[in-house]
Amino acid sequence: MSTSIPHIRALSHSDYQEPAFKRQRLEISQEDIATNVENLIAMENLDVTAATPTVSLSELEVSTGLQPADRKMKKKKKRRDPPLPEPCSGADVQYREIRELLGGDVVDSVTEAGNAFLSPFSPTEEVTVTIESMGSGGAGLARAPSEKGPWAVVVPVALPGETVRVKIVKNDRMHSCGQVLEVLVADIETRDESLVRCKYFGSCGGCQYQMLTYEKQLELKRNVIVKAYEIYSSLPESSIPTIESTVQSPLVYNYRTKITPHFNRPPKAVRNDIIPAGEHPSWLQIGFNMANNRSTLDIEECPIATPILNEQYKSERQIITKNILSYQKGVSLMFRDSLDTAFNAKQMMAPPIDKLSEAFTKHVCVSDQNATAREMVGDYLFEYTAGGFFQNNNAILPLMVDFVKELIRSGDDVAPPTHLVDTYCGAGLFAISLSSLFGKVAGIELSKSSIESAERNAELNGIPKSKVSFQAGTASNIFSTVRSFPRDRTVVVIDPPRKGCDDVFLAQLLQFRPATVVYVSCNVHSQAADIGHILKATASEPEGKRYKLERLRGFDLFPQTAHVESVALLKLY
Ligand SMILES: C[S@@+](CC[C@H](N)C(=O)[O-])C[C@H]1O[C@@H](n2cnc3c(N)ncnc32)[C@H](O)[C@@H]1O
């Protein structure tokens, strides 16, 4: 039964036009032609089994316009496959999921035959597939029809069990990406189109889950953590605690406190045009990356961003549109929700603190990357450079900080921790928010401007320098600074960037061996890999020196998207 899916239908026709001046991404380049031909030649010399994608020579000639003579010319040119994706990256996670779907042996044999990039689909081909599983990136995963050979189709906004007609929009290693044209068989139990708030949902790459209830989104995010630990930690099931339910964001729309829309410079062909007042030329795309490819989709407002960001973005779009012909380069904009920095921060924090006053409630939008932004998290005030790192969902931050506090307090009351080491500390969010639990706090962070903010934040919040110190540098350097900290009373908080901790950091952490480690992560896959490494490295140590993973819980910092963050507690036992 075909189901009416308004936003998906809208995507399938010509609402969105690729700007005429842009080279079509799907155009086959000379290099692609060469590769396809070589692969084809390789296939001709192979004992072609069912495991090999089947594209006939004539099909390839039709799709590439290549004639037999060209084949001879290109025969000698060999091109190697691009390297495998960076471990724990989104592409790596997806590749592993594709291997799971198609079978590791099958993928290996296609790869050995040099055909991992030989898509059985011609660009823009339409195909009907049934989604078999949900990828951790929020897209449905399907097998290509069997006559196409072992190949996957990755389909955003399609759910397991659904049958969808898609247009192929991109070919990659062992898979093609499909854009839904029609949902032929819908999972009406799970899909609820009335929940979708954004008219660009499905074509914009920002959100994946608007068609799901929030409860379902949280369940899927928990599954991502379960799977990440199964695959990336290489730990036995018995070493992984029950993963707790994902903590909800108090706001599920209008929560995002930073957005970075962008646009390209105008194409040469229109440089001498005159844009009539109030008109938005069709070639001008100001917005966010599309799902499935990196071209920009023109978007007037983003429902997951805070209202003040949308207000400012809308008026900025008008100014840019008016002046677009004067831009020589593409621009990445930044809008950051902030408390109004016109109020004096020291005065705000001088008792008696009035949290209902304008200084604590008036929000503004900061669009200068170098300007200062300000936010209150619980009882602490934080300032930071607007273009620098600060978490993007302020509504959930107090819950996250409280959970970290709970983990720290959950231990031995007889000898509670006295020292905190905040690694990858940014502007001091954890160091400062947790400072009341400790006698001594040390933080480290690579960005000098974030360290300056952290120092200022300690001062603004009345935390003496004798108690809290910050250091600019790579995280592993902290261990020489905190040599005097008592390891059995020390908590190390780890909150690295997406790629996780490096080997030097992990080696130093293992040598230091603090009683408690709280690992906060924006990439559950690298967190699982790092924690797996820590547990395995200490597994054969004597009692009291082995780490145990005691708690693990997801936090939904980005509702409507597939992204999930997680917090883990490690203890020595
Ligand atoms: C996910 S953020 C966490 C920041 C902070 N904990 C917070 O919640 O606001 C990761 C931080 O690690 C910093 N960083 C990246 N590589 C680093 C390294 N090798 N050593 C120390 N800090 C690093 C980044 O600048 C960024 O501020």
UniProtKB/TrEMBL annotation:
Residues binding S-adenosyl-L-methionine, per UniProt: Q391, Y424, E445, D495
Signal peptide start-end: none
Listed GO MF terms: tRNA (uracil(54)-C5)-methyltransferase activity, S-adenosyl methionine-dependent
TRAM domain: residues covered: 120-182
SUPFAM superfamilies: Nucleic acid-binding proteins (SSF50249), S-adenosyl-L-methionine-dependent methyltransferases (SSF53335)
Keywords carried by this UniProt record: Methyltransferase, S-adenosyl-L-methionine, Transferase
Family to which the UniProt record says this protein belongs: Belongs to the class I-like SAM-binding methyltransferase superfamily. RNA M5U methyltransferase family.
GO BP: methylation; RNA modification; tRNA processing
Record: active site: C522 (nucleophile), C522
Organism of origin: Hypholoma sublateritium (strain FD-334 SS-4)
Lineage: Eukaryota, Fungi, Dikarya, Basidiomycota, Agaricomycotina
Disordered, as annotated region: 62-90
Designated name of the protein: TRAM domain-containing protein
Xref: InterPro entries: MeTrfase_TrmA_AS, MeTrfase_TrmA_CS, NA-bd_OB-fold, SAM-dependent_MTases_sf, TRAM_dom, tRNA_(uracil-5-)_MeTrfase, U5_MeTrfase_fam
